[in-house]
Amino acid sequence: MATVIKASCHDCGDVELGVTDLEVRVCTQDEQGTYVFRCPSCQMSVVKPAEPRIVDMLVASGVALVEWHLPAELFEHRGGDPICHDDLIDFHRLLLTEDWFDTLLSAR
Ligand SMILES: [Zn+2]
Questions:
Q1: Does the predicted model carry a pTM greater than 0.85?
Q2: Which residues are close to ligand 1, an ion, with C-beta < 5 A?
Protein backbone atom coordinates (compact mmCIF):
# COMPACT_ATOMS: atom_id res chain seq x y z
CA MET A 1 0.00 0.00 0.00
CA ALA A 2 1.35 3.40 -1.02
CA THR A 3 2.29 5.87 1.70
CA VAL A 4 -0.04 8.87 1.89
CA ILE A 5 1.32 12.04 3.43
CA LYS A 6 -1.09 14.66 4.67
CA ALA A 7 0.05 18.26 4.31
CA SER A 8 -1.57 21.65 4.26
CA CYS A 9 -1.74 24.25 1.51
CA HIS A 10 -2.11 27.88 2.57
CA ASP A 11 -5.10 28.34 0.26
CA CYS A 12 -6.65 24.88 -0.11
CA GLY A 13 -6.22 23.42 3.36
CA ASP A 14 -5.42 19.75 3.87
CA VAL A 15 -4.15 17.79 0.86
CA GLU A 16 -2.88 14.24 0.41
CA LEU A 17 0.44 13.56 -1.29
CA GLY A 18 2.55 10.59 -2.31
CA VAL A 19 6.20 10.31 -1.32
CA THR A 20 7.30 11.44 -4.79
CA ASP A 21 5.18 14.59 -4.53
CA LEU A 22 7.41 16.11 -1.84
CA GLU A 23 11.03 17.00 -1.37
CA VAL A 24 12.83 17.53 1.94
CA ARG A 25 15.56 20.17 1.98
CA VAL A 26 18.12 20.55 4.75
CA CYS A 27 20.69 23.34 4.94
CA THR A 28 24.12 21.85 5.73
CA GLN A 29 25.25 24.94 7.67
CA ASP A 30 22.43 25.39 10.16
CA GLU A 31 20.59 22.05 9.80
CA GLN A 32 17.30 23.89 9.19
CA GLY A 33 14.84 21.74 7.29
CA THR A 34 11.89 22.41 5.02
CA TYR A 35 9.60 20.32 2.89
CA VAL A 36 8.35 21.45 -0.47
CA PHE A 37 5.48 20.31 -2.62
CA ARG A 38 3.22 21.52 -5.39
CA CYS A 39 -0.37 21.63 -4.20
CA PRO A 40 -2.40 19.08 -6.19
CA SER A 41 -5.41 21.40 -6.06
CA CYS A 42 -4.12 24.92 -6.88
CA GLN A 43 -0.69 23.91 -8.31
CA MET A 44 1.12 26.50 -6.17
CA SER A 45 4.44 25.61 -4.57
CA VAL A 46 4.21 25.24 -0.82
CA VAL A 47 7.23 25.41 1.47
CA LYS A 48 6.92 24.55 5.15
CA PRO A 49 9.51 24.41 7.92
CA ALA A 50 10.33 20.92 9.13
CA GLU A 51 11.76 20.05 12.52
CA PRO A 52 14.40 17.30 12.54
CA ARG A 53 11.86 14.65 13.60
CA ILE A 54 9.63 15.61 10.64
CA VAL A 55 12.64 15.46 8.30
CA ASP A 56 13.52 12.02 9.65
CA MET A 57 9.95 10.78 9.34
CA LEU A 58 9.54 12.03 5.76
CA VAL A 59 12.91 10.62 4.64
CA ALA A 60 12.13 7.29 6.34
CA SER A 61 8.86 7.25 4.39
CA GLY A 62 10.77 7.55 1.11
CA VAL A 63 10.66 11.30 0.44
CA ALA A 64 13.76 12.56 -1.41
CA LEU A 65 16.27 14.47 0.72
CA VAL A 66 18.19 17.37 -0.79
CA GLU A 67 21.02 18.92 1.20
CA TRP A 68 21.97 22.47 0.26
CA HIS A 69 24.45 25.03 1.51
CA LEU A 70 24.40 28.78 1.77
CA PRO A 71 26.09 30.61 -1.12
CA ALA A 72 29.82 31.18 -0.59
CA GLU A 73 29.28 34.90 -1.22
CA LEU A 74 27.68 35.17 2.22
CA PHE A 75 31.02 34.29 3.83
CA GLU A 76 33.20 36.60 1.74
CA HIS A 77 35.01 39.43 3.50
CA ARG A 78 33.59 42.77 2.47
CA GLY A 79 35.78 45.84 2.58
CA GLY A 80 35.32 49.47 1.69
CA ASP A 81 32.28 51.65 1.72
CA PRO A 82 28.96 50.59 0.22
CA ILE A 83 28.39 51.61 -3.40
CA CYS A 84 26.53 54.91 -3.71
CA HIS A 85 24.79 56.73 -6.56
CA ASP A 86 27.93 58.73 -7.36
CA ASP A 87 29.84 55.44 -7.81
CA LEU A 88 27.22 54.22 -10.28
CA ILE A 89 27.37 57.48 -12.25
CA ASP A 90 31.18 57.27 -12.35
CA PHE A 91 30.96 53.65 -13.52
CA HIS A 92 28.42 54.56 -16.18
CA ARG A 93 30.72 57.31 -17.48
CA LEU A 94 33.65 54.91 -17.46
CA LEU A 95 31.70 52.42 -19.58
CA LEU A 96 31.24 55.13 -22.22
CA THR A 97 35.00 55.31 -22.80
CA GLU A 98 36.83 53.16 -25.34
CA ASP A 99 39.32 51.70 -22.86
CA TRP A 100 36.98 51.11 -19.91
CA PHE A 101 38.10 47.50 -19.44
CA ASP A 102 41.81 48.38 -19.39
CA THR A 103 41.06 51.18 -16.95
CA LEU A 104 39.30 48.73 -14.63
CA LEU A 105 42.18 46.27 -14.83
CA SER A 106 44.72 48.95 -14.00
CA ALA A 107 42.66 50.07 -11.00
CA ARG A 108 43.41 46.82 -9.17
ZN1 LIG B 1 -3.43 24.75 -2.86
A1: no
A2: 9, 11-12, 39, 41-42
Å from CA of 108 to ligand 1 middle = 52
Residues contacting 40, CB < 8 A, separation 6+:
15, 16, 17, 21
Helix axes 100-107, 85-95, angle to 10 degrees: 130
For the stretch 58-106, pLDDT in tens is 999 999 999 999 999 888 888 889 999 999 999 999 999 999 999 999 9
Cα→Cα distances 44→28, 63, 105, Å: 26, 19, 46
Nearest-5° Cα angle at 16, 14 to 31: 85
How many Å lie between the centroid of ligand 1 and the Cα of residue 38?
A: 8
